[in-house]
Amino acid sequence: MAKQISYQPLTDIGLNGLNTQSNPASLDTSYLVKAENVVIRESGRIAFRKGLKQKVEPSGTAIVSIHEHDDNGTNKVLVSYGTSIYVVDFTDPADAFPSSGADLKHTVGSTTGNWQFVNFNDRLHCFHSGVVPQRYDGSLGSGSKWTAHATDPASISSLFDPSCGMGYYGRIWCGGVAEAKDVVYYSNLLDGDDWTGGDTGLIDLSKVWGIDDVIAIAPFYGKLVIFGKNNIVIYDSPETVGSLALNEVIRGVGLVSRDSVQAIGDDLVFLSNTGLRSLGRTTEKDKLPLTDLSLNIKDTLIRNIGQSSNVKSVYVENEGIYIMSFVDKNITYVFDFKHFTPNNAPRVTTWTFDNDREPSSMTYTATYGLLVGQQDGGLAGYEGYYDTDLEGASTYTYSSYTSSIATTWINLGESIAASFLKRLFLVLEGGSGATLGLKWYKDYSPSPSDTTSITLNPTTTGTTSLWGASTSLYGTTTVTTTNAGAFVTDTYYAIATVGSTNFTAIGSADNVVGTVFKATGAGSGSGTAVSHTHNATVHSSNSTYAPLYGLQEYRTPLTGSAKNLKLEIDIESNGFDASLQDLTLLHKQGKIR
């Protein structure tokens, strides 16, 4: 009697993200053993990460630190590379890092760019190992906007050079001074420059944790948290320094990198020698550091830490993701705090980048969202579905990247009988014109099948371009508007006389002699409508918009027989989003073996 074909839906494929820790032969299909250049949406669907689009021309030197500062109501972005700190000029992408100008470029000898920037009392305080702290006054400065801290704590006999700092509880706190690495200093109240008068002071941690170095300082729910290499100390009442009291010492768990510390909801997340941990959850466990946020990639992450401790991080609140980059290794982990796996860890994916585009620093800004300082010196936003490079003021080059996922070993349901592989059904959304590559592995073999290529061609609604392409809504290169009596809002006119309430002068158009005006409101009268030549390369953000793409089912045959099957899917980005919605396997029971 002929055997029935079995339909095996894989509806929760990849729901819990990457798992390199557990045995892939026993993991269920909600985990992946490879999850590169993808994110997992709230619905649990696997999708492309967004691209890094450069907003300024790369300097050629990695941006090591980046920060947004509120300068008296104006948000400014400051970056550092080499021995200088720059105020970024986004209006001039070809020269965004000024080569001169004391207000826009501040050079400090013997520095590497690895600053920690701290907003405090409307000023920006800057900490770097080996040099005295620097201060940026911005619009509040009467002369030079940059100054060096002038006074040192009385206990310092050589150089006051803290490597980390914090502006909170009414004062500046700092530590990591070469002369006294186990001491935290605090400034006078509301004066981040005064380290000698008023109620300034210090905390000598040698009497608390023994021998250790201060790596970072952070606020946490009304407490002062001091991270060492091997210990963590928590103090109560930091808002009243006279009442500072030791709350807890967490021994044996320290901090790998100053810039891995991020506040996420009720937790303070940081990278320790044993993985990514949460301080909030640690202190709930009877003072034992038991909670590990990287359980699913623990050994892999520890190997990365052993290879390099140069780590940068950021928390992107609107997407609920903590991004951590091992700068020297081009390995970026993305921890998704919107969803926790059954072992109470955030799901994880990884990102990689080509041509030195990988993050060398990151910050989340109110003005631009996520900003990424890159190894090639670029400053990029997180947008689109290409990694986009900028050359000059407006010349963009678009580079695709490949998202790649691999499933765990899927048991085909017959413990002693192999199954004949028949077909795979895939349901995807988007990715128009992209090529999907599929290969499969059978019964724990390291050798895959030949790669099957599938062109994605979902149903499309709308046009990809308003103008500037052969398929554009308004033609190849120009948009021509005409008026019939009344002036039309958002229409361009070249006329002799203009009513001041109806028009705004906008300069000369590319193919019009004389002044061009834009209608700004309803009016009467007539004018000569003119065409305005648009170039889609120059005006790309106004030319194109993301069309809506529907779901599409793809079917491909599978060959051979197996008891267990692993699938690997690669998709090269082509500027549009794509997400995997569903997988279904068709197979038929074969011989007992």
Strand runs, count:
49
Task: Please state the CA-atom Rg, rounded to the nearest Å.
Answer: 29 Å
Distance between the termini: 19 Å
CATH superfamily of the largest domain: YVTN repeat-like/Quinoprotein amine dehydrogenase
Strand content: 35-45%
Question: Structural class, from helix and strand content?
Answer: mainly beta
Please write the CATH class name of the largest domain: Mainly Beta
How can the largest sheet be summarized? 7 strands, antiparallel
Helix count, per DSSP? Answer: 3
Indicate how many domains the architecture comprises.
2
Poorly predicted tracts of residues: 479-485, 494-501, 508-514
Name given to the CATH architecture of the largest domain: 7 Propeller
Rounded average pLDDT: 87
User: Rough shape?
Assistant: globular
CATH structural fold name of the largest domain: Methylamine Dehydrogenase, Chain H
Verbal overview:
- The protein has two domains: 5-33 and 413-459 and 550-592, Jelly Rolls (Sandwich); 52-400, Methylamine Dehydrogenase, Chain H, CATH 2.130.10.
- The chain is built from three helices and 49 strands.
- The longest helix has 10 residues, at 298-307.
